[in-house]
C-alpha cells in the first residue's frame, strides 16, 4: 500500500464497474471444441439482471455454439457457467428443471411447431413443466399472445397462416410462457423487414422496462444494437474481444469492431439515430 501513488489509491477504492449489479449469468473460461477444432477458448462473459445484451461476431465465430453451451446443449471442455447463482455442473436434476423453467429461448430456426396452433405452441412449455387444467392454460396462452401484440384470433392459427413478424412474436410468446427471468434470442430480427424488426426490438425493450426481463440477444442487426441493447459483447478469436456500451464499441480500435461499428452501414444508422 505504501508504494501506491494517489491515482492507484483512487483506483483501488473505486468500486469496479458494474460491481453493484446482479449478475444473472456468469460464464467463466469456457472452451468448446468439435474434434480438433476449437470454437471457444477460455471465454468469459457476465450478463446483468434487467439488461439487453447484444452479442455479435462474424459469421461462424461461435455465437450459436456459446448459446447452446449456456443452455446445456453442447459439451464444454473447460470452464464454468453459473446461472441464477447456480453452477450448472453441480446442480441436480430438480434444480436443472427449476433453472430451465426460468429461461425462455427463441431459436433462430424452427421457431414454432408447424402442426400446432399458436395457442398450442405457447402451451408446449406449460405442458412440459406444469400441471394445469386446460382452461387455465388457455387463459394463460391468450395473455401471452396479447402481451406480444398479436390479435386474439391469431391464437387458433397455424404458423403457415402467419407473417414472418407474427411468427417471431408467437415464438416470443412461447419463450415467455413460464414468465422467465431471462430470454435468449438467436437473431430474432433476421428475415424481418426494417419496420417489423424495429417493432420487435421495441417489444423486447418494453418487456425489459415493464417486467425487468433480462435479454441475451445474438444479432447481426445494427439497428438493434444501436437502438435497444444496453451492452454489447463481441465474439472474435474464440473469446469475448470487447464488451461495453455502444459508445465503447464506437471508440474501439479493435479492427473487426471498428469496421463493424464504424463501417459505412453503421455510420448511416448512427446518423439516422442522431437525427
Ligand atoms: N455440432 C457441431 N459439430 C461440429 N462443428 C460445429 C457444430 N456446431 C457448430 N460447429 C462449428 O462451430 C463454428 C461456429 O458456429 P456457430 O454456428 O456458433 O457460428 P455463429 O457465430 O453462430 O455464426 P452465424 O452468425 O453464421 O450464425 C462453425 O465453424 C461451425 O461449423
Quick description:
Belongs to the ABC transporter superfamily. The chain has 275 residues and is α/β, with parallel strands linked by helices.
Supply the key terms.
11 helices, 6-stranded mixed β-sheet, ATP hydrolysis activity, Rossmann fold, 275 residues, 23% strand
> What fraction of residues sit in β-strands?
15-25%
What is the number of beta strands?
10
* Class from helix and strand fractions: alpha/beta
User: Mean pLDDT, as a whole number?
Assistant: 87
Radius of gyration: 20 Å
Specify the oligomeric state.
single chain
What count of domains describes the coordinates?
Answer: 1
**CATH architectural category:** 3-Layer(aba) Sandwich
**What summary fits the major beta sheet?**
6 strands, mixed
Question: What is the terminal-to-terminal distance?
Answer: 50 Å
Strand order of the largest sheet: 6-7-8-3-9-10
Shape: globular
Looking at the structure, the CATH topology is: Rossmann fold
Share of residues in helices: 40-55%
Number of helices: 11
Helix/strand order: HEEEHEEHEHHHEHEHEEHHH
Top CATH class? Alpha Beta
**Corresponding CATH superfamily:** P-loop containing nucleotide triphosphate hydrolases
What ligand species are in this complex? adenosine-5'-triphosphate
Low-confidence stretches: 1-15
Amino acid at each position: 500500500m505504501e508504494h501506491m501513488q494517489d491515482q492507484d489509491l483512487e483506483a483501488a477504492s473505486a468500486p469496479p464497474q458494474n460491481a453493484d449489479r446482479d449478475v444473472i449469468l456468469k460464464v467463466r473460461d469456457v472452451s468448446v471444441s468439435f474434434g480438433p477444432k476449437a470454437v471457444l477458448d477460455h471465454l468469459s462473459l457476465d450478463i446483468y439482471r434487467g439488461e439487453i445484451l447484444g452479442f455479435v461476431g462474424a459469421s461462424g465465430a461461435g455465437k450459436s455454439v456459446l448459446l447452446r453451451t449456456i443452455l446445456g446443449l453442447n459439451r464444454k471442455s473447460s470452464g464454468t457457467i453459473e446461472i441464477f447463482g447456480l453452477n450448472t455442473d453441480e446442480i441436480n436434476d430438480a434444480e436443472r428443471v427449476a433453472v430451465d423453467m426460468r429461461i425462455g429461448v427463441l431459436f433462430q430456426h424452427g421457431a414454432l411447431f408447424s402442426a400446432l396452433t399458436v395457442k398450442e405452441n405457447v402451451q408446449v412449455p406449460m405442458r412440459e413443466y406444469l400441471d394445469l387444467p386446460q382452461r387455465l392454460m388457455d387463459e394463460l396462452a391468450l395473455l401471452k399472445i396479447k402481451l406480444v401484440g398479436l390479435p386474439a384470433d391469431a391464437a387458433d392459427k397455424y404458423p403457415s397462416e402467419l407473417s414472418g413478424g407474427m411468427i417471431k412474436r408467437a415464438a416470443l410468446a412461447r419463450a415467455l410462457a413460464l414468465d422467465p427471468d431471462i430470454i435468449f434470442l438467436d437473431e430474432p430480427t433476421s428475415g424481418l423487414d426494417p419496420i417489423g424488426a424495429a417493432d420487435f426490438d421495441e417489444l423486447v425493450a418494453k418487456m425489459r422496462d415493464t417486467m425487468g426481463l433480462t435479454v441475451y440477444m445474438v444479432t447481426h442487426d445494427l439497428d438493434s444494437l444501436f437502438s435497444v441493447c444496453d451492452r454489447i459483447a463481441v465474439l472474435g478469436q474464440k473469446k469475448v474481444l470487447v464488451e461495453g456500451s455502444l459508445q465503447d464499441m464506437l471508440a474501439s480500435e479493435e479492427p473487426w469492431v471498428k469496421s463493424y461499428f464504424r463501417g459505412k452501414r453503421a455510420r448511416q444508422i448512427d446518423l439516422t439515430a442522431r437525427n
